[in-house]
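Posted in: Structural Biology > Protein-Ligand Complexes

Title: Requesting predicted complex, adenosine-5'-diphosphate in pocket

I'd be grateful if someone could produce the 3D structure tokens for the following input. Sequence and ligand are given below.
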Amino acid sequence: MPAMAALPESAELLELRSIYKTYGSGERKFTALQDINLQIRPGEFVAILGPSGCGKSTLLRIVTGLNSASSGTVLYRGKPLTGINPHATIVFQTFALYPWLTVQENVELALKARGVPPESRQSRAIKLIDTVGLDGFESAYPRELSGGMRQKVGFARAMAVEPELLCLDEPFSALDVLSAEALRGELMELWLNKSIPTRAIQMVTHNIEEAVFMADRLIIMDKDPGRIVAEMSVELRHPRQRKDTAFQAIVDRVYAAVAGKTLPDAEELGQVPGKGMTRRLPVARLNALAGLLEKLSAEGGRVDIYRFAADIQMELDDLLPVVEAGELLGFVHVQEGDLQLTPLGLAYAEASVLGRKEMFAGRILRLPVISWIYETLQQDDNQRVARQYFLDKLRPDFHDRTEKQLERAINWGRFAELFAFDNDTDELYLE
Ligand code: ADP
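-- Reply #1 --
Done. Output follows.
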């Protein structure tokens, strides 16, 4: 472990300059991170929020040196990072402990790896185990512990390295609600009381409330391509109370930043393939959309989306694409973290199955990609066109996601009874 030189409080601990990360090449090239610029100062707890696939984990791996950027610079204490970052440690969602070693031996191993001499390992390990609230469990084996306790051992092991920068990748998401909450509280206590030598924490999460509960600054990312879309500071005093109106107001603002991006109409609906960016269809189950509209109607047509997700016991990650589909079709409207049913959405919720199909068809025909498929089929003499034709046209816009996007368009088209797919001939045809 390199000695920690005194560091002026204003200096950056970590600086990312125009980081790009791409996977694959040529037509298959996929941009996982686009132009990421980020600075972290000593004393900061920064949370990175965003939907699955927006590159949060990739970003964390680049910071710790487990992955390298395709271009751009990572500066740690002002110096370009090459290889593994010796000052950073990462805690993952599930921590791999050695099952044949006791809690204490697992922690001692981390101390050994750090070069701590044998005579002081034992006492240091016991102290760390005590710090994370596991005293009495030193000689237990991992299989004897609950998930929350195992994750505590993971934290103890991470602390053993005394990282200057502690990187957390969804560290609480595999735990049950109570263990997660307890462990968050314990980590905050260690951090705020400066019981650990860590100078900054960078946590990846998709849990908005968790981020607002813990962090000083929130970095909000979006995907396709993975990029930073907003930044917010949280200036509430600790310990933060989730039920406080100020707390909830921030949660709403973050939600609005994550979900309620109002795009110009053309961009909202996308373009015909080949004319620019074609809008991606969200991964939404159409039955879930109908369910959402019905529930929303039963709730009086307007709900706080964050609380709504909790009420219907749906992960935000699963709910967001459904909301996005609803927005795209004009059935719901998202504003300031509230989800609102439009008159059209209400009509849909109250319509019969057949009525819904008709409305749905009318709405999706407004989407350029759907109307383009529909018109292409209409213009064909047999009203049948090879799937490959559509794939070729869509490829420049969707790259390796082309098959998925076409599949989704076919699903929507089939649901609306506009067009369908013939497996035997590999063709799309008009219904
Ligand atoms: P998040 O943590 O926000 O869910 P990730 O950083 O795991 O996102 O992934 C970002 C995107 O990069 C995803 O679309 C994922 O499929 C893609 N990706 C990650 N690792 C690889 C890889 N080794 N090869 C190709 N694509 C990858």
